[in-house]
Amino acid sequence: MIGKYRKYCAPRRISYPLQFVDVAADAYANRFYKRRTRPQTDTSQPRFLLMTSGHLGDALTLSYLFPLIRRQYPTCQIDVVAGSWCDPILVRNPYIRRLIHFNHAGTNRSKKSRLAKWREHFQMMQTAIDQLKTETYTASVDVRFSDSPMLFLLPFIQVDKTVGFGTRGLGGLLDNELFLPDEEFHHLDLLLNELRAIGVKASLRDVQPYFPVADTARQTLRQKLPIIDDKAAPLILICPESGEPKRFLPNTFWRKMATELLTKTNCRLVGCGQLPQTTQLLADIVSDNPVAADRVFSTVGKLTLDELAALSEQASVAVTVESMPAHLCSIFCPTLSFYSNGMGFQFFPLSSYPVMIFHNHSYSKDMTLDRADFVSRYVTEFGEVVQNQSIQWIQSILAKKEKL
Fold it and tell me: What CA–CA distance (Å, rounded) separates 4 from 27?
């Protein structure tokens, strides 16, 4: 090990170069950065800067922290640096004073070339720095621990206290440098550890998931999907897509699930997503169940994130894979999720309604969340047994709703 020992969250091909980077970063930090003149901030109105290079699901769960910060500091101001792709989650959040865009090339999923992504990266970095230079902050918190943190922005920011993870380099710039535990963890537990460094003490049980739905979204949803006003039969959302293709389940799995639901319940199925393969899946479901074709609806490529949230408000159940909809839908309705080839417990959704998770993450085999009506089951394959148990869980949810 060269320089200070650090537990990097990276394969060897990345962690070895990071050691050399950190030797230089530590030297700079010790000689210059940590001797910087700390800004005099208004203690009666502290300002916090939160930074994330993550995507929609990351932005959603990050937003769960804002009420906890405001609870501890009622007069505080919260600014956020995030990719522009997070706008559907963050742009209307009532806790955010200022949203600063920075599309990190390391997490940019656009179809642009790598060169174009890096060009955009440096252009937006300069713009973000220009905006951040005009502010002074009580503390900055970079919540990214796996890859693509934004610690390189810190020398350009007037900030009293810096908090983040040293797991991907430049940890020497941090006043509170954190690392990952050896045991399995929930990602929000890590973020709550960061908040403790700025005086906010909370646990997972204190986290109350939320997402502000615009009234206009409810109106436009009714125009796009008039059936939501018909309460004669329950709505079940099918959300088979994820940002990681390896987490998709085969169409045969979904077709069998849909046939069972259409046969054993009087539900209407609403398919949600953005990809042509989801459109094809819904066409296959209709082909498999011609008698129930009038109970299968597609919103593929038609809904905004706000409209998906509004649709979740009207749904009896949402069925998802490990994805942003798993977190969003569980705020508004009971949710069944299939976590295949994912991170397991680390990203189990914190919910406001009953949740059932089937996952194949072996290290999360005995892990669950201490929340009401949350159940997780470890499986080695997503086959008939999982389908049968899923149908039974959905039927029990529908039966409870009928009694209300």
Answer: 11
